[in-house]
Write a structure and sequence with these properties.
Structural class: mainly beta
Number of helices: 1
Number of domains: 1
Helix content: 10-25%
Strand order of the largest sheet: 1-2-7-6
CATH topology: Immunoglobulin-like
Radius of gyration: 17 Å
Distance between the termini: 20 Å
CATH class: Mainly Beta
């Protein structure tokens, strides 16, 4: 399978537009407030870039506890999964606006063939998960 990394100039924010459109469609198709309605998984924002010796993936996970994050690779696919608690106060509240996604999440990223999926490392700081995937020699 051929994997490609698309590179856009700063003026071309097509990835952001595509994510935004996907979020809108997802919310419209999966909205509903019926009893027993299961909230769908949310998808955190992801950036991926290629450096000389590695690929770097940055996942925005504000409010997610470190112990709730799972990172693994399988068959050339990197998966980041976990859960974020509902940040709203418990009890009776009058809701004016609700945009912060919570609950389970999962993102999968196809790695390029040159990625060494057996040598992945990750660190979490200030709401960002930084994953480094070295290139094969």
């Amino acid at each position: 399978m051929n994997h490609a990394i698309l590179v856009h100039s700063q003026g071309e924010d097509l990835g952001h537009l595509a994510r935004h459109m996907t979020d809108i469609v997802h919310k419209v198709l999966h909205s509903g407030f019926s009893p027993g309605h299961k909230r769908p998984e949310w998808a955190p924002s992801v950036d991926m870039c290629e450096l000389e010796d590695r690929f770097e993936i940055i996942v925005e996970l504000a409010g997610v506890r470190r112990e709730e994050i799972e990172v693994y690779t399988e068959h050339g696919v990197l998966t980041v999964a976990g859960s974020r608690d509902d940040p709203m106060p418990e009890g009776k509240v009058r809701l004016y606006q609700m945009e912060i996604e919570h609950g389970p999440f999962r993102r999968t990223i196809s790695l390029p063939p040159s990625a060494d999926e057996d040598a992945v490392s990750a660190r979490y700081r200030d709401g960002f998960l930084r994953i480094e995937v070295p290139k094969r020699p």
